[in-house]
Design brief:
- With 361 residues, this protein is α/β, with parallel strands linked by helices.
- It contains 14 helices and 15 strands.
- The chain has an 8-stranded mixed β-sheet, with helices on both faces. A 5-stranded mixed β-sheet has the order 11-9-12-13-15, with helices on both faces. Strands 10-14 form a two-stranded antiparallel sheet.
- Helix 3 (52-60) crosses helix 4, helix 7 (148-158) packs parallel to helix 9 (208-219) and helix 7 packs antiparallel against helix 11.
């Protein structure tokens, strides 16, 4: 028997509706059966479930538009119905479910992030299946996570999960769009996401929107599998040697919980360009970033904001919490640490980003 694992299962709307306008409850029963099989084996299961808007459209029984406010209204109607269905289906197996609705703000703020993590862990400790969705009824573009692929990656980090199953309407990640290119082939395993892979997968049915979520999760030590949600026993097969779809191998995760939050948490507010010497020191020596290695700064940010460190080709090297504002960084860039006090008329330390406040990408 496999050791106990925490498995996050993301179910897209297309998986839950079978491409129709209504929830496919027969398929939902099958998905629940597989989740319960995992629980019998001793695993913990978390569902990140789309479908609130579809459930609301089904309940409303009258024509409705597709604007943001229409979708928020439908989500408000459908969310209760969706959780009721999940509650009823898991109830057939004597398993309780608990609902968590999240927005980007719940992840950006460190305290709210920790509260969400504690609630999630408490549900798992009491053998409850968390059913998680974005709070679409109130989320605006500023506070939306973006989609349930990204949400599921953040949930996997919150839960310190072992596996993230991204179940979609496609078999996995392809070299190009299989719907238009007969020569497109399935990519069985991904060890590194680079620009070539992004370009290859950009037009495929399951693209690097999903791949981007997979990259975030695997950097936090989570193995990610993209597979077709309509496949027979797809969830159980993802846990076996009979692996469907595309597997993203996990990387070594940061041990510091705050560094995991940096991977999952707030969007960066700016960029600091660093030279090759600084890149080498960060990657090979575990060093902090000093002003001498900075060549430029973009965006408007303040002390304590999350920013990206990039090279001259705009490749993201790391992200972390800056100890200087964008105005200050541009004043001290390229300077020796001993010059900072003179350039700023005050001394607030030598490190632009300390290694304890930084995660390498």
């Amino acid at each position: 028997m496999q050791r106990e694992q925490v498995i996050v299962v993301k179910l897209g709307t297309s998986v839950l509706t079978g491409g129709t306008d209504k929830l496919d409850k027969a398929h939902m029963v099958e998905l629940v059966r597989q989740c319960c099989e995992l629980k019998k084996l001793g695993h913990h299961v978390i569902l990140v479930s789309s479908g609130a808007v579809a459930a609301g459209r089904e309940q409303l029984l009258k024509p409705c538009g597709r604007s943001l406010i229409d979708k928020q209204m439908l989500a408000a109607i459908g969310q209760g119905q969706l959780i009721h269905i999940w509650q009823s289906l898991f109830g057939l197996y004597g398993i309780n479910v608990g609902q968590m609705l999240l927005t980007r703000a719940d992840v950006d703020d460190r305290e709210r992030y920790l509260n969400a993590r504690d609630t999630l862990n408490a549900l798992l400790n009491y053998d409850v299946v968390p059913i998680i969705n974005e709070n679409d009824a109130v989320a605006t573009s500023e506070i939306k996570v973006g989609d349930n692929d990204n949400l599921s990656a953040l949930v996997a980090i919150l839960a310190n999960a072992n596996k993230l199953l991204l179940l979609t309407d496609q078999e996995g990640l392809f070299t190009s769009d299989p719907r238009t290119n007969a020569d497109a082939t399935l990519i069985g395993e991904v060890t590194h996401i680079n620009d070539e892979l992004r370009q290859l997968a950009g037009g495929s049915g399951t693209n690097l929107g999903t791949g981007g979520a997979a990259d975030i999760a695997r950097r936090a030590g989570v193995e990610v599998i993209i597979a077709k949600g309509a496949g027979k026993n797809v969830i159980l097969k993802c846990m076996s040697d009979e692996l469907p779809g595309t597997r993203f191998l996990k990387l070594t995760a940061p041990k510091d919980g705050r560094k995991k939050w940096l991977l999952a948490g707030p969007k960066s507010t700016g960029q600091i360009v660093i030279d090759t010497g600084a890149i080498g020191a960060l990657q090979n020596k575990g060093a902090s970033l000093l002003a001498k290695g900075v060549t430029n700064a973009f965006g408007r940010f303040e002390r304590g904001d999350l920013i990206d460190l990039i090279d001259a080709k705009n490749q993201v090297i790391a992200r972390g919490l800056t100890r200087f504002s964008s105005v200050e960084v541009n004043k001290i860039k390229g300077a020796h640490s001993s010059q900072i006090g003179q350039l700023l008329d005050y001394d607030s330390g030598a490190e632009v980003l300390h290694r304890d406040d930084m995660v390498l990408l």
